[in-house]
Amino acid sequence: MSIIGNRLAELGITLPTPVAPIANYVPFVRTGNTLVVSGQISLGPNGLMAGKLGGDVSIEDGQKAARQAAINVLAQIQAAVGNLDNVVRIVRLGGFINCTPDFFDAPKVMNGASDLMVEVFGDKGRHARSTVGVAALPVNAAVEVEALVEVA
Q1: Which secondary-structure segment (H or E) carries 81?
Q2: What percent of the chain has pLDDT over 90?
Q3: What pTM value is reported for the model?
Q4: Domains in the chain, please, with CATH?
Q5: Who's near 92: CB < 8 A, 6+ residues apart?
Q6: Which residues contact 18 (CB under 8 A, 6 or more apart)?
């Protein structure tokens, strides 16, 4: 098993089969050593983590949703490069948080995704980041995460 595969096993994470796009886009694009992963929603083994932060979703549940969306990002990276050991660096994450207009803790929610990348990749998982609160996400997902990754 790969180094990162072993790390995922230690964390109790099994990567899902990547979800096919639901519109006119591809799940990832690789150009040279750069991989761009399209936004992945908070769809987990128990279904969709849905709803609005600041409304019916707590910060803690939002962090779990962000973590799940990041796990889905990892599944797409693996599909693109075959082995997560080929990740040189997680360069950037973009987070979209489905929230009420008065919710100002979106960065706390996005930490669920950021923390996962550091848990999995160590220093290679430290990244730049943008987090944006939005009025709605596809299928009412609580969180969507996209990534820019340097790969070998």
Answers
A1: helix 59-81
A2: 97
A3: 0.97
A4: 3-12+25-151 (3.30.1330.40)
A5: 127, 128, 129, 130, 147, 148
A6: 27, 72, 75, 76, 78, 79
